[in-house]
Design goal:
- The chain is elongated, with a radius of gyration of 27 Å.
- The two termini are 41 Å apart.
- It is built from eleven helices and 30 strands.
- It has 494 residues and is of the alpha+beta class.
C-alpha cells in the first residue's frame, strides 16, 4: 500500500463471532456462460460461481509488548468503537491473538486456493470457510510479495468446485464484471459493476498493471475474484482508493494473466521465478529526449547497467534507449520490467535499442531475478563517516555546490565504491538544481555523456555548452547507488 488513501481490502476482526458467514448449499460448478452483455439478472451467474469463492480467516499471536496496528477508521457513532478501544487497551503484557478476514477462490478440485499475500502474511493459522459453511485448515504453498499473491491448500473429503481463469487482456473498459468476497466479514457477498480503466499504476509494487473497477469492493474483499460475464476470473481484487475506508467506486484488481503465471510458479516452485536483465530504466521526458537527441519519448532509457549482468554481457550501456524486447514493443519504462519478468529464465532474446540515433540489436540470456543485497551498499553502510575536504566549487549556472569525491566524501554520503564522479554538497532550493530535486550526496557521473572527475570538469562543460547556445544539459546522476538521467534547462540558469 502506498499513501493513506490506498487501502488493503483485508478487514481486521479482533473479536470472535462478530459476523456469521452465509451458508447456501454447495453446487457443482457449471460450464461458464458465454453472455457478455448486461443481463436482466446476475442471479444465475452468481449461483454458479458462489461455491468457488471462499472466506479466509487468519490468526496471528502477538507476544507480550508487541506493537499493534492503530484503531480501525470507524464512524464516531459506530457501536464497534468501544469494543475496539477495550480490546486495544487490554493488558499489553499478556500474549493475545489478532484475527484477520479476507477472501479467496478455488482453482483446482484438489483444494488449491488463490488469495492476496497480505491476507495471509505473518499468519500463524489459516482457516478457509467454504460456501457451504465447512471450515478447513489451510497451508501456504507459496507467496509473492511483489505482486501481492499467495497460494494456499486445503484438504477436503470430496473434489471442490473451482473457478477458471479468463484472458484479462480481452477485458474492455465498459465490460460488466461481478466481484464475490467477504467484505467486513459478510461472506458470499456479490456486487456488480464495470471495468472502469486498465493498466493502472498505483505505486503498489514494481509490476503494477491493475484493472480498475467500480464494482463495490471493501475491506475483506482482498484476494477475492473479479469475474467477467462468461464466469471466468479476470482479476484478483487487491486494493481500493478511499478517503473513508469504504467503497467509493474505485477498486483495483490484479489482471488474471499476471495471476496465472505467478500462481503456476508458486505451485511448481513455491516462489515466483522472474526474468532479470540487469538494467535500471527511466521514463523519457520531452526534455530528456531533446537533451539526448532522441526522436521521441517512446521507449525505456537505460540509466544504469549492472556489472556482470545479462545486459552488460550483451553490450548495453547507460544512455541506450530500449524500444523492443524479445519482439515486443517497449512503450515506456513501466512496460520493460513486466516483459522481462515474464520471460523464461535462460531464454536468449533480442533487445532492440537506439544508441546515438542508430538502431542496434543485442542478444542477451535472461537470468533469474534474485533478491540479494548489494555488496557495495552494505560496504558503504559499514563505512565510518569522515568530513569531506573543503575544496568545493560553486556552479552558478545550476545552483549547487560540488566537491571532489574523495574518501571522506564517499564515507559521509555513503557513496558506493564503484561510483565515480563529483559529489553535490549543497543545493540552492530556488534554482534549477532545487527544482530537479538535487540533494547533498548526489554524484554527477557524466555531463552530456562525458565522464567528469572534478568540479572544474563540470563547470567547464556547462560554461561551454551555455555559450554554444545549448538549452538542455543532460546529467547522469548517481543517487543512493542508483543512476538516473536529469535534464537541466541551461536557459533558466544563471
Amino acid at each position: 500500500m502506498r499513501g493513506s488513501e490506498f487501502l488493503r481490502l483485508m478487514g481486521r476482526a479482533v473479536f470472535a463471532g462478530a459476523l456469521a458467514l452465509a451458508s447456501p448449499a454447495a453446487i457443482a460448478a457449471a460450464p461458464p456462460s458465454m453472455g457478455r452483455g448486461a443481463p436482466d439478472s446476475f442471479a444465475d451467474l452468481a449461483n454458479q460461481l458462489l461455491p468457488t469463492v471462499v472466506n479466509i480467516a487468519t490468526t496471528q499471536t502477538l507476544k507480550a509488548g508487541t506493537p499493534e496496528a492503530a484503531l480501525p477508521d470507524l464512524p464516531q457513532d459506530s457501536p464497534l468503537q468501544q469494543l475496539f478501544k477495550d480490546y486495544m487497551n487490554q493488558d499489553k503484557n499478556v500474549p493475545h491473538h489478532i484475527t484477520s478476514l479476507g477472501s479467496g477462490f478455488i482453482i483446482d478440485a484438489s483444494g488449491l486456493i488463490v488469495t492476496n499475500n497480505h491476507v495471509i502474511d505473518q499468519a500463524d493459522e489459516i482457516t478457509v470457510t467454504l460456501n457451504d459453511g465447512t471450515s478447513l485448515p489451510a497451508k501456504v504453498v507459496g507467496r509473492d510479495e511483489k505482486t501481492d499473491l499467495a497460494l494456499v491448500r486445503v484438504k477436503a473429503k470430496a473434489p471442490l468446485p473451482f473457478a477458471h481463469f479468463g484472458d484479462s487482456d480481452r477485458a474492455r473498459i465498459g465490460d460488466w464484471v461481478i466481484a464475490i468476497g467477504n467484505p467486513f466479514g459478510l461472506g458470499s457477498t456479490v456486487t456488480a459493476g464495470i471495468v472502469s480503466a486498465r493498466n493502472r499504476d498505483i505505486a503498489a509494487g514494481p509490476y503494477d498493471d491493475f484493472i480498475q473497477t467500480d464494482a463495490p469492493i471493501n475491506r475483506g474483499n482482498s484476494g477475492g475474484p473479479l469475474f467477467d460475464m462468461a464466469g471466468n476470473v479476470v482479476g484478483v481484487n487487491s486494493e481500493i482508493y478511499s478517503p473513508t475506508g469504504g467503497s467509493v467506486g474505485i477498486g483495483f484488481a490484479i489482471p488474471a494473466n499476471m495471476v496465472r503465471k505467478v500462481i503456476d510458479e508458486l505451485r511448481q516452485y513455491g516462489e515466483a521465478r522472474r526474468g532479470w536483465l540487469g538494467v535500471r530504466v527511466q521514463q523519457v521526458t520531452s526534455d530528456i529526449a531533446e537533451g539526448l537527441g532522441l526522436p521521441s519519448t517512446t521507449g525505456a532509457l537505460v540509466a544504469d547497467v549492472t556489472p556482470g549482468g545479462p545486459a552488460a554481457k550483451g553490450g548495453l550501456q547507460s544512455g541506450d534507449l530500449i524500444v523492443a524486447f524479445d519482439g515486443k514493443s517497449v512503450a515506456d519504462q513501466r512496460t520493460l520490467p513486466r516483459i522481462v519478468a515474464d520471460t523464461p529464465v535462460g531464454k536468449t532474446v533480442a533487445v532492440d535499442y537506439l544508441r546515438s540515433g542508430k538502431k542496434e540489436t543485442a542478444h542477451v540470456m535472461v537470468a533469474k531475478l534474485e533478491d540479494t543485497p548489494d555488496p557495495d551498499e552494505l560496504a558503504a553502510k559499514a563505512a565510518k563517516p569522515a568530513p569531506p575536504k573543503a575544496n568545493a566549487s560553486k556552479v552558478s549556472q545550476l545552483g549547487f555546490v560540488l566537491a571532489q569525491l574523495d574518501g571522506g566524501a564517499r564515507a559521509k554520503y555513503k557513496v558506493p565504491n564503484d561510483v565515480q564522479g563529483v559529489v553535490v554538497t549543497d543545493v540552492d532550493p530556488n534554482s534549477p538544481a532545487g527544482d530537479n530535486h538535487f540533494r547533498p550526496g548526489d554524484v554527477i557521473v557524466e555531463v552530456q555523456s562525458e565522464a567528469v572527475h572534478t568540479p572544474d570538469d563540470v563547470a567547464k562543460r556547462l560554461d561551454a555548452d551555455a555559450k554554444a547556445g545549448k538549452k538542455i544539459e543532460m546529467l547522469l546522476v548517481s543517487r543512493a547507488g542508483e543512476s538516473t538521467y536529469v535534464a537541466m534547462p541551461l536557459s533558466d540558469a544563471g
